[in-house]
Specification:
Blueprint (H helix, E strand, L loop, with lengths): L2 H17 L3 H10 L5 H13 L3 H13 L6 H14 L2 H14 L5 H13 L3 H10 L3 H15 L2
Helix pairs in contact: 1-2, 1-3, 2-3, 3-4, 3-5, 4-5, 5-6, 5-7, 6-7, 7-8, 7-9
Length: about 150
Protein backbone atom coordinates (compact mmCIF):
# COMPACT_ATOMS: atom_id res chain seq x y z
CA UNK A 1 0.00 0.00 0.00
CA UNK A 2 1.27 3.48 -0.84
CA UNK A 3 2.58 5.28 2.26
CA UNK A 4 0.69 8.49 1.39
CA UNK A 5 -2.57 6.59 1.22
CA UNK A 6 -1.77 4.93 4.56
CA UNK A 7 -1.35 8.35 6.23
CA UNK A 8 -4.52 9.64 4.64
CA UNK A 9 -6.55 6.61 5.71
CA UNK A 10 -5.05 6.58 9.21
CA UNK A 11 -5.86 10.26 9.70
CA UNK A 12 -9.45 9.73 8.57
CA UNK A 13 -9.76 6.78 10.96
CA UNK A 14 -8.46 8.91 13.84
CA UNK A 15 -11.11 11.54 13.10
CA UNK A 16 -13.78 8.84 12.95
CA UNK A 17 -12.64 7.29 16.22
CA UNK A 18 -12.58 10.70 17.84
CA UNK A 19 -16.04 11.68 16.65
CA UNK A 20 -17.47 8.38 17.89
CA UNK A 21 -15.76 8.67 21.28
CA UNK A 22 -13.25 5.85 20.78
CA UNK A 23 -10.26 7.85 22.00
CA UNK A 24 -8.14 4.83 22.89
CA UNK A 25 -8.42 3.58 19.30
CA UNK A 26 -7.37 6.99 17.96
CA UNK A 27 -4.42 7.08 20.37
CA UNK A 28 -3.34 3.55 19.47
CA UNK A 29 -3.49 4.28 15.75
CA UNK A 30 -1.42 7.44 16.26
CA UNK A 31 1.21 5.62 18.31
CA UNK A 32 1.49 2.81 15.75
CA UNK A 33 2.14 5.16 12.83
CA UNK A 34 5.71 4.79 11.55
CA UNK A 35 5.77 8.47 10.52
CA UNK A 36 3.39 11.28 11.31
CA UNK A 37 2.33 14.22 9.18
CA UNK A 38 0.92 17.56 10.32
CA UNK A 39 -2.51 16.12 9.52
CA UNK A 40 -2.11 13.15 11.87
CA UNK A 41 -0.84 15.36 14.70
CA UNK A 42 -3.71 17.82 14.13
CA UNK A 43 -6.24 15.00 14.10
CA UNK A 44 -5.32 13.76 17.56
CA UNK A 45 -4.81 17.26 19.02
CA UNK A 46 -8.29 18.17 17.74
CA UNK A 47 -9.79 14.97 19.14
CA UNK A 48 -8.35 15.73 22.58
CA UNK A 49 -9.46 19.37 22.49
CA UNK A 50 -13.01 18.52 21.39
CA UNK A 51 -13.39 15.81 24.05
CA UNK A 52 -12.50 18.01 26.99
CA UNK A 53 -8.92 16.79 27.35
CA UNK A 54 -7.06 20.09 27.11
CA UNK A 55 -3.96 18.89 28.97
CA UNK A 56 -3.51 16.02 26.51
CA UNK A 57 -4.03 18.35 23.53
CA UNK A 58 -1.42 20.80 24.78
CA UNK A 59 0.98 18.01 25.73
CA UNK A 60 0.69 16.58 22.20
CA UNK A 61 1.25 20.06 20.73
CA UNK A 62 4.53 20.28 22.67
CA UNK A 63 5.51 16.76 21.53
CA UNK A 64 4.88 17.84 17.94
CA UNK A 65 7.30 20.77 18.35
CA UNK A 66 9.91 18.46 19.90
CA UNK A 67 9.53 16.08 16.95
CA UNK A 68 10.57 18.95 14.67
CA UNK A 69 7.23 19.46 12.96
CA UNK A 70 5.98 23.04 12.63
CA UNK A 71 2.33 23.70 13.60
CA UNK A 72 -0.12 25.12 11.09
CA UNK A 73 -3.32 27.16 11.42
CA UNK A 74 -5.40 24.10 12.34
CA UNK A 75 -2.92 23.18 15.07
CA UNK A 76 -3.07 26.65 16.60
CA UNK A 77 -6.88 26.79 16.45
CA UNK A 78 -7.20 23.42 18.22
CA UNK A 79 -4.63 24.29 20.87
CA UNK A 80 -6.30 27.65 21.53
CA UNK A 81 -9.60 25.80 22.03
CA UNK A 82 -7.79 23.50 24.46
CA UNK A 83 -6.55 26.56 26.39
CA UNK A 84 -10.17 27.66 26.71
CA UNK A 85 -10.89 24.30 28.32
CA UNK A 86 -8.09 24.88 30.82
CA UNK A 87 -9.66 28.17 31.86
CA UNK A 88 -6.17 29.65 31.44
CA UNK A 89 -5.80 32.91 29.53
CA UNK A 90 -2.01 32.77 29.93
CA UNK A 91 -1.87 29.50 28.02
CA UNK A 92 -3.86 31.13 25.24
CA UNK A 93 -1.77 34.30 25.09
CA UNK A 94 1.41 32.21 24.90
CA UNK A 95 -0.04 30.24 21.99
CA UNK A 96 -1.14 33.52 20.38
CA UNK A 97 2.44 34.83 20.61
CA UNK A 98 3.76 31.69 18.91
CA UNK A 99 1.06 31.93 16.21
CA UNK A 100 2.17 35.51 15.52
CA UNK A 101 5.82 34.44 15.21
CA UNK A 102 4.81 31.63 12.85
CA UNK A 103 2.59 33.95 10.77
CA UNK A 104 -0.73 32.23 11.47
CA UNK A 105 -2.46 34.79 13.67
CA UNK A 106 -4.41 36.30 10.77
CA UNK A 107 -5.80 33.08 9.32
CA UNK A 108 -9.54 32.57 9.72
CA UNK A 109 -9.24 29.43 11.90
CA UNK A 110 -6.80 31.03 14.31
CA UNK A 111 -8.55 34.42 14.34
CA UNK A 112 -11.86 32.76 15.25
CA UNK A 113 -10.23 30.77 18.06
CA UNK A 114 -8.45 33.88 19.36
CA UNK A 115 -11.60 35.98 19.23
CA UNK A 116 -13.57 33.36 21.19
CA UNK A 117 -10.74 32.97 23.69
CA UNK A 118 -10.41 36.68 24.39
CA UNK A 119 -14.18 37.10 24.63
CA UNK A 120 -14.52 34.08 26.95
CA UNK A 121 -11.96 35.52 29.34
CA UNK A 122 -13.57 38.97 29.03
CA UNK A 123 -10.51 40.44 27.37
CA UNK A 124 -12.68 42.59 25.11
CA UNK A 125 -9.93 45.11 24.34
CA UNK A 126 -7.76 42.29 22.98
CA UNK A 127 -10.72 40.91 21.01
CA UNK A 128 -11.35 44.33 19.47
CA UNK A 129 -7.64 44.83 18.65
CA UNK A 130 -7.71 41.49 16.88
CA UNK A 131 -10.83 42.48 14.97
CA UNK A 132 -9.30 45.81 13.94
CA UNK A 133 -6.15 44.07 12.76
CA UNK A 134 -8.21 41.78 10.54
CA UNK A 135 -9.83 44.48 8.46
CA UNK A 136 -10.88 43.11 5.13
CA UNK A 137 -13.77 41.70 3.18
CA UNK A 138 -14.40 38.72 5.43
CA UNK A 139 -14.52 40.73 8.69
CA UNK A 140 -18.15 41.83 8.51
CA UNK A 141 -19.33 38.31 7.80
CA UNK A 142 -16.96 36.90 10.41
CA UNK A 143 -18.17 39.33 13.05
CA UNK A 144 -21.82 38.73 12.20
CA UNK A 145 -21.42 34.97 12.37
CA UNK A 146 -19.45 34.92 15.60
CA UNK A 147 -20.49 37.84 17.79
CA UNK A 148 -23.83 36.32 18.77
CA UNK A 149 -22.19 33.01 19.62
CA UNK A 150 -19.52 34.68 21.76
CA UNK A 151 -22.08 36.73 23.65
CA UNK A 152 -24.02 33.58 24.57
CA UNK A 153 -21.14 31.29 25.62
Amino acid sequence: MCLGFYWFLSTKLMFMYGKSGHLSSAQRLFKEMPQRTIFTWNALIGVYASHGLPFKAIELYHEMWISGLMPDACTFASVLNACNGLEDIHCGTEIHDVAIKCGFDSTTFVANALFFMYAKFEQFDSAMLLFEKLNGAFCAQWMGNNLGHVMHT
